């Protein structure tokens, strides 16, 4: 059995404040017995303040993968597997990125592949989806808009991912915001994508998200853990906090695939 935690929390430009909040969330997850904690996209440095027209002078701090802040993050993680989002510096390029690590070091990284219209002016796109082994099982990471595309999660599942860590800074609708967050179309889509990506690949999914506001955007929260049948096992709704669920990942996946095994029944020769 493994306990998985997904966080809803707000993070901004102040890296020291972000580390303090991470430390608190890790402590809370540890108290819950969690072995895996998935933090939101842009955990270190916050997200864009304007998704339609990002200010080039007000972007999140770009961090080199060798920056000492990741050693500090690993120290906080200790025995726990922790996934966190940040802006990655790579020469002249910047990437919306995620790292997965423990106190022993980095287990995997991901650069967001699918960039919505505003992000393309601030970030370069990643170009691959790779799963990696961790103490809690084989994990694959998705960032925000990546999970809108079924091929993203499917690529990770075909690479053996048992757990999908979906890190988000997902706001309410920018063009047609509803008066209540629960009525917002992005709120519905966020949950729909989480459940669909888990069910169609018959894997466990841990979905984190930012809360609060950044510039003109208001973030949904709605962190959750989803089982391989698409059932929501734990959730935060729109509040800040942790969604924590305990399950036997391998057994639950085997049960979901006992009769209908989606990955083995694929017919790739029939698809464009």
CATH top level assignment: Alpha Beta
Strand content: 25-35%
Structural class designation:
alpha/beta
Number of strands: 16
The amount of helix comes to: 10-25%
CATH architectural label: 4-Layer Sandwich
Question: What Rg is obtained from the alpha carbons, in whole angstroms?
Answer: 17 Å
Number of helices: 5
In round numbers, the mean pLDDT is: 95
InterPro entries: Aliph_Amidase/BUP (IPR050345), C-N_Hydrolase (IPR003010), C-N_Hydrolase_sf (IPR036526)
Organism: Sphaerisporangium rubeum
Keywords: Hydrolase
Protein name: Putative amidohydrolase
Strands, helices and their partners?
Blueprint: E1 2-9, H1 15-31, E2 36-38, E3 62-63, H2 69-77, E4 81-90, E5 93-102, E6 105-111, E7 132-134, E8 137-143, H3 150-158, E9 163-167, H4 185-201, E10 204-207, E11 209-210, E12 213-214, E13 217-218, E14 224-226, E15 232-235, E16 241-247, H5 249-256
Parallel strand pairs: 1-2, 1-11, 2-4, 3-4, 8-9, 9-10
Antiparallel strand pairs: 1-16, 4-5, 5-6, 7-8, 10-14, 12-13, 14-15
Helix pairs in contact: 1-2, 3-4
Describe this structure in words.
Keywords: Hydrolase. Residues 2-249 form the CN hydrolase domain. The strands form 3 sheets. Strands 1, 2, 3, 4, 5, 6, 11 and 16 form an 8-stranded mixed sheet that branches. A 6-stranded mixed sheet has the order 7-8-9-10-14-15. Helix content is 22%, strand content 29%. It has one domain (2-270): 4-Layer Sandwich (Nitrilase/N-carbamoyl-D-aminoacid amidohydrolase). The protein has 272 residues and is an alpha/beta fold. The chain has 5 helices and 16 strands. The mean pLDDT is 95.
């Amino acid at each position: 059995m493994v306990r998985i935690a997904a966080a809803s929390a707000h993070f901004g430009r102040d890296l020291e404040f972000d580390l303090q909040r991470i430390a608190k969330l890790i402590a809370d997850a540890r108290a819950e017995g969690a072995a895996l904690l998935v933090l939101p996209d842009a955990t270190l440095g916050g997200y864009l303040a304007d998704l339609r027209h990002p200010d080039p002078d007000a972007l999140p701090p770009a961090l080199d993968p060798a920056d000492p802040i990741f050693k500090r993050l690993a120290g906080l993680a200790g025995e726990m597997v922790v996934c966190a989002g940040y802006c990655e510096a790579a020469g002249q390029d910047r990437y919306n990125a995620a790292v997965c690590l423990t106190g022993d070091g980095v287990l995997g990284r991901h650069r967001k592949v699918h960039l919505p219209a505003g992000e393309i002016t601030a970030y370069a796109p990643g170009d691959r989806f790779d799963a990696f082994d961790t103490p809690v099982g084989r994990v694959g990471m998705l960032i925000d808009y990546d999970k809108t595309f079924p091929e993203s999660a499917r690529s990770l599942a075909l690479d053996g991912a048992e757990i999908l860590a979906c890190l988000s800074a997902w706001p309410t609708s920018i063009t047609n915001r509803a008066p209540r967050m629960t009525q917002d179309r992005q709120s519905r889509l966020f949950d729909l994508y989480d459940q669909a990506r888990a069910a169609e690949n018959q894997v466990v999914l841990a979905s984190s998200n930012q809360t609060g506001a950044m510039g003109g955007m208001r973030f949904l929260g709605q962190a959750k853990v989803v089982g391989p049948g698409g059932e929501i096992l734990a959730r935060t709704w729109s509040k800040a906090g942790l969604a924590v669920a305990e399950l036997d990942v391998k057994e639950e996946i085997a049960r979901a695939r006992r009769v209908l095994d989606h990955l083995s029944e694929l017919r790739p020769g029939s698809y464009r």
